[in-house]
Design brief:
The protein is mainly beta. The protein is built from three helices and 22 strands. The strands form six sheets. The chain has a six-stranded antiparallel beta sheet, with no helix packed on it.
Length: about 350
């Protein structure tokens, strides 16, 4: 523990904050995870001292949804004739916010798409052995079994807000890790086709008899198309971020530059539980703060992409620990050549003095 110059004791300052006592940063009172707190008394750093900031304690109700409107609930689609990318109609479906597993997500998605005008029937099945979705498309409306349905998972208006990862079309596995491709399903009468398309270029990745479902069985180029289904892909960990200047955290999502992240919070409880970090959990990462006076805090609870988590109006608690340390004096190491020259000069001075003393005696 560090020495606190104000109290003359080996103590830290700990600031406890409940989000209900703060001001919403974005003026939306329902978003309790992005706020500003202005304490009645500022934290002033004594002269020749520096603050080490660390996360002391946090309690977060695990009520946020795996599917949220600002994260992964929008999916654009379009219809065209077989073998063509010329759009005849298009639309957007909105998945209801909630916690889904593979089966309930499958039901929700197909129900919404099939309710759209002229879409026909998109069917899905889930293979529990390969952990992959199978697809089938049948259109008996408008084009007499001659239609193509494209899920715009990469180029649509909501390209950043759709459930592509949860459906298995994530960048690690889908089409050579290229994010610019959409996926299409085609009812061509005799065969059920599926593939990816970009800039009018179509590539078939599977062809099965009408009515069959594809399960990604490692045959005929199937293996590199779909990845393991992960309905938790949207949120794996939580991140507490602050506006305080810090130069101790690097973040790969911004090219390895310095980040506003204070701490990473693993999600290790079931939905409905309380995510808790306390001093007893082990080592604490301390950040060196260069500010001389702290008059306000901006705190944000986000996912990895710096998007605020929606706790559905519930408040959460966080406590920040401030350790005051004496600012270390950094000594610049001398050049080795200068050290040698200084030693030689000192030796020369000693010999010169000895010579003078000898001459005086004589």
């Amino acid at each position: 523990m560090s020495f606190n110059n104000e109290t003359a004791t080996d103590a830290s300052r700990v600031l406890f904050i409940n989000s209900g006592d703060t001001q919403p940063y974005n003026s939306d009172p329902s978003i309790t995870t992005d706020y500003v707190f202005i304490p009645d008394e500022s934290i002033v750093v004594p002269p020749h001292h520096t603050i080490l900031l660390s996360l002391h304690h946090v309690q977060i109700p695990f009520s946020f949804y795996n599917f949220q409107l600002n994260r992964n609930c929008k999916l654009d689609y379009c219809l065209s004739t077989a073998g063509s990318t010329a759009i005849t109609s298009q639309g957007t479906i909105t998945i209801e916010e909630g916690n889904y597993n593979a089966t309930t997500l499958m039901t929700e998605l197909t129900t919404l798409i099939n309710a759209e005008a002229n879409v026909g029937t998109l069917s899905m099945k889930f293979n529990r052995d390969t952990l992959k979705f199978g697809w089938n498309y049948d259109n008996d409306t408008g084009s007499a079994n001659n239609a193509r349905l494209t899920l715009k998972i990469a180029t649509g208006t909501n390209a950043e807000l759709n459930p592509r990862d949860e459906l298995g079309f994530n960048a690690n596995k889908f089409i050579n890790r290229d994010n610019s491709f959409d996926v299409w399903f085609e009812d061509n009468g005799a065969n059920f086709l599926g593939g990816y398309s970009n800039a009018g270029v179509n590539t078939t990745f599977f062809t099965k008899a009408l009515g069959d479902f594809w399960y990604g069985d490692n045959t005929a180029n199937d293996a590199n198309i779909f990845s393991v289904v992960d309905v938790n892909a949207g949120v794996r960990s939580l991140f507490v971020r602050t506006n305080l200047t810090q130069t101790s955290v690097l973040d790969s999502s911004i090219g390895g530059g310095f980040s506003s992240i204070l701490a990473r919070i693993p999600i290790d409880v079931d939905s409905g539980g309380i995510i808790t970090i306390s001093p007893s959990d082990g080592s604490v990462h301390k950040l060196l703060i260069k500010a001389r006076e702290i008059t306000s805090f901006e705190v944000k609870l986000t996912d990895q992409k710096n998007r605020a988590i929606d706790l559905q109006g519930l408040d959460w608690d966080i406590s920040l620990q401030f350790d005051f340390i004496e600012t270390p004096t950094l000594e610049v190491p001398k050049d080795k050549r200068l050290e040698v020259e200084e030693a030689q000069y000192k030796k020369y001075q000693e010999l010169k003095e000895q010579l003078n003393e000898t001459q005086k005696k004589n």
